[in-house]
Amino acid sequence: MRYSLLLSSLALLSALAIPAAAHADTFDFSANGSSGAFSGSGTLTAAAQGSGAYLISDITGTGVTGLIAPGGFNGNDNLLFPAATPTLDAHGFSFTDVNGPDHFDVNIFNNGSGYFAHLNDEDNFSQTVPVSFSLASAATPTSPAPAATPEPSTFILLGTGILGLAGATRRKFISQS
């Protein structure tokens, strides 16, 4: 009886432990600096973190060579806030970019009065320029995302637990009569 109770408990715990499928959203961005000091555009891939924040996990675009990890350049946190009007915080997001022979790190952020790009090239020349920045959801899905599908072993474990629970219940009723 204890064995079947243990099996049923394990089956219940395994059913509750099925993880939800991770979902990432994409956002198109473009930034243009004054006097042609900087121009960039691309797509950000980000996952919801709660409290309306999204953590950027990937970036693609013309000249973009990679996303810089949070805290890796100019205090970036790689968070965006896609509320009614998508926005960035004062830490922004950072990436590496190539423009002709020049390689540089870029941090785009919002200081509350507007958007800026902090640039640092391979010669350690550093500059912060105001930019016009836009961020929008890249595409709305035409069909809902597929639900997570449990593995067959999960079903086997769940079925074994249900059989164990049924056996324990049957024994209990037989011993009481």
From TrEMBL:
Q: Where is the Ice-binding protein C-terminal domain?
A: 148-171
User: What name has this protein been given in UniProt?
Assistant: PEP-CTERM sorting domain-containing protein
Q: Which UniProt keywords apply?
A: Signal
Q: Which InterPro entries match?
A: Ice-binding_C (IPR013424)
Q: Where is the signal peptide?
A: 1-24
Q: Taxonomically, which superkingdom?
A: Bacteria
